[in-house]
Hints:
The complex is a heterotrimer. By secondary structure, chain B is of the alpha+beta class. Chain B has 2 domains: 11-119, Beta-grasp domain (Ubiquitin-like (UB roll), Roll), CATH 3.10.20; 122-266, Fumarate Reductase Iron-sulfur Protein, Chain B, domain 2 (Orthogonal Bundle), CATH 1.10.1060. Chain B is built from 10 helices and 9 strands. In chain B, β6 and β7 form a beta hairpin. In chain C, 27% of the residues are buried. Chain A binds chain C through residues 11, 14-15, 17-18, 21-22, 25, 29-33, 46, 48, 51-52, 55, 68, 71-72, 75-76, 78-79, 82, 107, 110-111, 113-114, 117-118, 124-125, and chain C through 34, 37-38, 40-41, 44-45, 48, 51-52, 54-55, 57-58, 61-62, 65, 81, 84, 88, 91-92, 95, 98-99, 137-138, 140-142, 145. The structure holds protoporphyrin IX containing FE (HEM) (3 copies), iron/sulfur cluster and FE2/S2 (inorganic) cluster (FES). One protoporphyrin IX containing FE (HEM) sits between chains C (33-34, 37-38, 40-41, 44, 87-88, 91-92, 94-95, 98) and A (11, 14, 17-18, 21, 71, 74-75, 78-79, 81-82).
Amino acid sequence: MRESTLWFWHIIAGAVIFVFLGLHMFIMHLESILGFLGLGYGGDVTSAQSVFMRSQQGFYMVTYIVLLGAALYHGLYGFRNILFELSLSRTLEKIINWFFALGGLALFIYGTYVTVFIFFNPTAV
Amino acid sequence: MSETSAPEVQSSDLKVIKNVTFEILRYSPEKDEAPRAQKFQVPVIKGMTVLDGLLWIKENLDASLAYRSSCRMGVCGSCGMFINGLPRLACNNQIVHLNADTITIKPLPNYNIIRDLVPDLEGFFDKHESIQPYMIREQVEELNNPTGEFFQSPDELVDYIQFAYCIKCGLCLSACPTVATDDNFIGPQALAQAYRYNVDSRDEGAKEREEELYSSHGVWRCHFAGACSDVCPKGVDPAFAIQLLKQNMFMQKLHVHKQKPATHVIPWVAEHIPNEKIPKAPERTVK
Amino acid sequence: MKVEVKHRKNKLGIVGWIGGGRFGAERYAYALHRLTGLGILAYFLLHIFVTGSRIGGRQSWESAMANFKTPLFKFGEFLVFLAFAYHALNGLRLIITELGFMLGKAQRPVFPYVTSVHRQRPLFIGLMIVAAIIIIFGGADFYFI
Ligand code: HEM
Ligand code: HEM
Ligand code: HEM
Ligand code: SF4
Ligand code: FES
């Protein structure tokens, strides 16, 4: 039963990432098309100016936190599945579960802290 | 009385069309450290199957060649082998249709080799057993001492009949990427059989099979590579059954899954009333 | 009585994930989905730390980005984009099919058998064309505009 619940969220997360990472990739890699449509910022998307402009918008902050959580869960659960298909012992499987769960949580806290901190401290940067 | 005679064998049917090389992976546990390939020249006549070729080799060239076969017509599931790049039934594939001058035959991958082309299917049958591939009813008494038959409509039959065609040949597990590494994975054949019983309108065992099916080595280890359905010689389409099992669980999670109640018992008709239009069967000749 | 026999192991192992037979395209799509999933995950884990450098302000961000301005990294980033385009569109197909949709209905098996894998193939081909179009636009954006 537990496995079904985990897989359920893997699929839901996949659908969420589809929307949010689609957006992220569109902004990062198809910016010239956005430019044609009159939505671009102009200039280099990874320049400090462009990055910090986004960082101070609530929309991007929320988007990034959702994407961060969904991608971490989806990617780490997917990787765990691949490892589970290697005929490991039950003990090793348990260790992997804990390692991925705690590691994922730590990364989520770190990434959320970064986005939230910058959003609320525009002067610090 | 009409006369029936066997169709005459034309001498052209027995003509050797071409010669092909059979390259067979041999392994005998007493002698060999590792499997080795051995070549045989086989004359091919019209309609000859790969299994016929093996029989010919055993009769004429090397009596020690080991393989399994029984029905030689694709119903018993004994003769599964890895033939020219795919797991196939030797009896179900004509040599000329393979369109090659060399027929490479290996034992089915993902099973231990007992000898030459004979795979060890024991674990495979254990997996099949583990999903309780039989009718489960709450009315145990009715199952053991039936007072009638469980009703089933022709439409309800179509829901599962394709999955019931499985002949346990094991080709699907040979094609499956997950089986290649995961010893604990239940595998396409057994999962398809679980679905076959779960959707059967007479069965009530879905709950009992749940724990095994949806465990961390059950349906979720399938990634719809689809190879099992590609190679299945009976059109069972095990990948389809597995995705439908996933669908059932997903709907259950969304609380929109409808489990129909199992069908009722229709009592046997006490007296058989014959149809006038159907002529009577002749008297039995053996008493 | 059970006779002890020396059986020879014949599991394909990880090689079996990649293929090794004349299987349908979906079998290879699965291998690529796995590879791209792992590739994006590796990139993403690094990405969290690299983009985390924005917390140190403009200077810190610019010095972090300076490391990645080489053609090799640009190409690597393009690979991530390719992987994303494929994984996303193929993933969409898997979400649909693994939930049992667009696979047709159970039927009497009549030779030549038509399976669910055949029935979902138009969806597969359609989404791969979309992925190709996205890759072409992305490539143009990367290298020509
Ligand atoms: C290869 C192309 C990519 C580029 C050029 C890129 C660029 C960036 C940049 C510049 C930022 C900083 C925030 C901003 O500028 O608005 C960022 C943040 C982020 N990116 Fe990407 N990205 C790429 C791919 C990805 C992928 C594949 C994922 C998901 C798996 C992803 C997930 C994220 C997340 C979650 C954040 C927020 C990080 C945080 O919370 O600190 N990115 N990306
Ligand atoms: C763009 C949207 C995405 C969609 C629609 C998507 C969809 C999917 C689906 C449906 C699966 C399950 C496939 C299966 O059963 O084998 C999957 C697996 C996986 N995904 Fe994604 N995914 C997306 C993005 C990502 C990202 C950003 C990552 C990395 C952080 C990722 C990493 C993985 C991994 C590692 C697997 C396991 C692969 C396997 O078991 O073979 N995916 N994805
Ligand atoms: C000593 C004589 C015979 C022996 C040892 C013998 C043995 C067998 C065996 C072992 C089978 C397979 C049973 C199974 O599938 O479960 C079989 C099937 C059959 N036998 Fe015989 N048989 C003999 C005589 C005959 C004769 C005289 C006839 C016809 C007049 C006959 C007609 C059949 C038929 C039609 C089947 C197929 C039954 C089916 O498919 O279920 N057999 N026999
Ligand atoms: S599902 Fe098909 S391939 Fe698999 S064991 Fe049954 S008949 Fe053979
Ligand atoms: S010999 Fe029976 S299936 Fe081939």
